[in-house]
Amino acid sequence: MSGCVDDHGRGDMHEAVSECFSKYPFAKGTAYKRFNCIYQAHAHYGPDAMGAQYSLRLQVDLASLKVGQDVDSGILTPEEGKTTLRWVTEKAYAQASQQQAWMAAQPKRN
């Protein structure tokens, strides 16, 4: 996933997300808090900081919250959670790319 648009990964949103990573390890008991913190940072700074893929990234954030719940409850191990997050992210971006390609191929209407 590309970095934050705000100041090319050096802005306020990037700093807020970095704090989430350092404050909440990806482990049982803190995974949901980690992803909730990231989601809150993304929602706070909004599309100007996140760029054109804002809604897609928020969807990935919401899926991450579910993975965090599953890791915290023991349904998934942290390693399984990481695998699930990679799959969700890759699938979301692949679908978005296909949709963008399809829309670009449509005839322009005047």
Automatic annotation (TrEMBL):
Protein name: Uncharacterized protein
Species of provenance: Acetobacter malorum
